[in-house]
Amino acid sequence: MANKDDQKEAPVVVINDYGALSST
Asked: CA of 7: how far to CAs of 2, 15, 19, 20, in Å?
């Protein structure tokens, strides 16, 4: 799994620290 920095920029649905699905 990508690190948190990559998740923020990745144009995909990832699970944030709150455990909710976030579509960026």
From this structure: 6, 9, 13, 13
Full-model pTM: 0.13
The dihedral sign for the CA sequence 5, 2, 17, 14: positive
What is the C-alpha separation between 10 and 8, in angstroms, rounded? Answer: 6
1-24 pLDDT, tens digit per residue, is: 556 665 566 677 666 666 555 555
> Chain centroid to CA 3: how far?
9
